[in-house]
Amino acid sequence: MRDKIKLIIGQEDKRNPLTDEAIANELGTLRENITKVRIETGIPASSERRKERLLQEIQSLFYEMGLVSDRKLAELLKQRGFKIGKFTVGQLHKSYPELWEPVIKSFQDETPVNDNKQEFQDDIFHKIIGSDGSLKNQISKAKAAVMYPPKGLHTLLYGPSGVGKSFLAELMHDFAVRTDNFQKEAPYFEFNCADYADNPQLLLAQLFGYTKGAFTGATEHKKGIVELCDGGILFLDEVHRLPAEGQEILFYLMDKGRFRRLGEAETSRESHPLIIAATTEDPESSLLLTFRRRIPMSIEIPALTERPMEEKWQFIEFYLSMERERLGRDIHVNQSVLNCLLLAEFPGNIGQLKSDIQVCCAKAFLEAKLHNKTAIEVVTDNLPEHLKSCINQSVPNDIRHLISGDVLFSEAGYQQFSGRLHKMNGTGIYEQLEERYTKLLKNGIAAEEISRILQDEVETTLVQQIRKMEESKFSLHELSAIVGEDVLEITEYIYQEAQKELPGLKDTIIFPMAIHIRASLDITKERKVALGSSFEEIKKRHAKEYQVAAHIVDKVNYKFYVMLPTDEAVFLAMYLKKFQGGHVDTEGKTAVIVLSHGRVAGGMAEVANKILGVNHAAALEMALSEDPAAAYEKTKQLVIERNQGRGCILLADMGSLLTFAEKIRQETKIPVAVCGRVDTLMVIECLHKVLWTEEPIETIVDELGSKKTLQPKTAKYNKIQHKRAVLCLCITGQGAAKMLRDFISERLKSVLDNIVIINRGYIENEDVEQIILQEAAQYEILAIVGTIDPEVKDIPFLSLDDIYQSSGISKLRKIIKNSLLLDHVILGEVITPELIFVNPPYRLKEQLLDQAIETMTSEGYVDERFLLSVYKREGMMTTYLKGGIAIPHGDPASVTKPVISITKLDKPVMWDGTNTVDLIFVLALDENSKKYFEQLYQVLSSENLVSLIRNSNSINEIRENLRLDTKPVN
């Protein structure tokens, strides 16, 4: 591995060296392994490897262009091929000021003062995202307001909360002290009028000062902010909360530059601050007209939703880079998380976006700590609840243009890469066939029978792969990134050549066929079994397509200097067949009709059709009270309509329906067979045999009837602790299940410690229940993932549709994490029986707190000051958590020995004037109790465990559900 790492690093782009994670992905190993070998070999980290080249480039740019802003410098570096953001340039500015100082000095020595000032003035506002975009007009106004002689123009900033009004005001001050209108030491004061809105007298006293005796408690003369801010800038936030009296005093100050302290009657004082006021309200309805007239400059700051998507991405990039810097570790952000952040609307605007990003990173950091992972991976589970509704939303083109994969934020900046390359491989069909062929051969199956089995399975598998890939909806540009330009060129050539012979061929063939060809070329050298002889029936069935395909394969091998396997003509023939008319050929096939009493048949037929990519199975549902003669006539008519010359199979659920077949045969002369039992799996198997085999209807019905019924929701499986598994069950056999297993393993690798992913297929001539029982004998099955729900009690099921979406993966991740949660129980060290209270008789918050804390005190866990510290904290902030849970806590200095109490109520109590709770965890933890809090956080994050606590009726039940009496598993 050491030599491979050296080779890769030796060939890397020196402007954008590969991170350890990128090298690990390329070599298929863990990041930790790469880091260890790199350090042992004495190779610097990626950020160090490019630092010298980057600093040289910055010096070169300064020499060519002079001093430019950090944002402009980042843009210029990107133009020269560096993947770098403004945040990273800013960090370089801080770390290597010596690069900037000579340039600054040369400007001071050679450039006129005013021009020098202007360069710095422009640089100030480049800190604002959108300064040269959506906020260009606002920045221009802000500059004009500050530079207007002699001392600037009073300004009103208005817009919703969180759009950056206070930040703009600060930059206006930074800009002002570099102009001739203000002294370099001009003061800046920020005052939030909302802080004193309930006490107008105190508000005016803070602003304008007061004299001794002006009000009770005024024991001395005191200057106000207005007086202290003379010659500077006074920022009044939430100015609409200023009472009318205050607004009148302010406009007198702005008019005359004079004011009085509170309590003064005759003395008049002078001050000349520049007023920058901000409000979230409509200025016309919230401010006095006389006050508004004294503010000549108004600047509206738009909401985040009104700004371009590119700027929203810049905010996300900036805040994620800040979190990376703060945590001191690389952050890998999944594409689905970035899509959600870009799609979501934030009522709190930029402030809320920043807060939500911090929440995401904090959760991801905590998970990394809990699982001893060095890499921080932000996934959709880490999103705040209000953002998760965006997970399944369609992604518009403007976001696709910005985000094409996962993003890694590292010391070197951020690197975007495709997160789908390793997930969209098409090697599965070859692996499935070779694995299946080898297994059948070892089992002594004759070559002729192997050929028949493989032919049945390959077309079904192919149809499913086509359907899955068609739904991906990639552009040709994205497809080129996945399969490579060479493979895309080959695929387009195949399509053009095939279309000459098959005019009805659809261009939607390009994507799935490109994935398939990429896989075919990748696996050619590794193929151990030639399968061409097994497909003679397919060659006959699709004779025209096979003839075209064989000719094209020869031309491709010659024209592009590649070597497609000989089997490829068979697969290509099936692709050509499937994409003529866009669906599976069902012409001339045996009809399949599902009959039922009640609304059952339609659902089974729909599922079977969807899985096999056809619309061949029909359904007829009859009311229980329906006259048998009328039901018979409906059935006979449907048989006549659906018959294509090969007869019809009726799958009936009960009663008089079983007698229809013989009567229909006699009256219509159409071959009809009936199976007197039906479930969804049987409809799928029947449809599969009808479409992909030439078996007569009597043989198909006999085979269906010989299988035992799977009894739903009856099997109770033994759970063997410490050996857990997720079972992948697919109709098309182990090959498809293996693809599913690989997909789950890749997506959930961070939580799969000691969890086995098992792949099994329905097409193994085994009863499904027997398959599950076999695996349950060895493992505790946490979940079943697959095509059809086998309806096993106590084992959750996730469908393929679910699992290939973020929501399904999140659900499976939660199931796995909940199963692992209490393997390492340490809460038993701090939760004792005497501090668990079940349904106490108290109905007030104070009574419940007193009960828990008095017990803690009497048992010696806390001293007497702890109770008061809890009440103080309750007065300062709410300790309510979402979902009816409260976590009151006090001063760690009052904790003698860490402890946690649990109070479970039968009826919720009012907690903070708004929210009610029925679970209360009083935390008496000191600075060394981090491990207890982390496990409690896990418990409270698990809906299942919280539900178990709520449903407990005794102290012992709570302890048993939380496994408090068990020792941690090593």
Give the structural class. alpha/beta
Proportion of residues in helical segments:
40-55%
Main pleated-sheet profile: 5 strands, parallel
- Count every beta strand, where a strand is a DSSP E run of 2 or more residues: 26
Taking strands numbered 1, 2, ... along the chain, how are they ordered across the largest sheet?
A: 2-5-8-1-9
Q: State the low-pLDDT regions, or none.
A: 105-122, 418-430, 467-474, 524-534, 708-721
Mean pLDDT: 78
Query: Shape, please?
Result: globular
So how many helices?
41
Radius of gyration over all CA atoms, rounded:
36 Å
Residue fraction in strands:
5-15%
Terminal CA distance reads 31 Å
Task: Provide a descriptive summary of the structure in words.
By secondary structure, this protein is of the alpha/beta class. It has 41 helices and 26 strands. The strands form 7 sheets. The chain has a 5-stranded parallel sheet with strand order 2-5-8-1-9, covered by helices on one side. Strands 22-25-26-24-23 form a 5-stranded mixed sheet. The protein has a 4-stranded mixed sheet with strand order 11-10-12-13. It is globular. The relative contact order is 0.05. The model is unreliable at 105-122, 418-430, 467-474, 524-534 and 708-721 (pLDDT under 50).
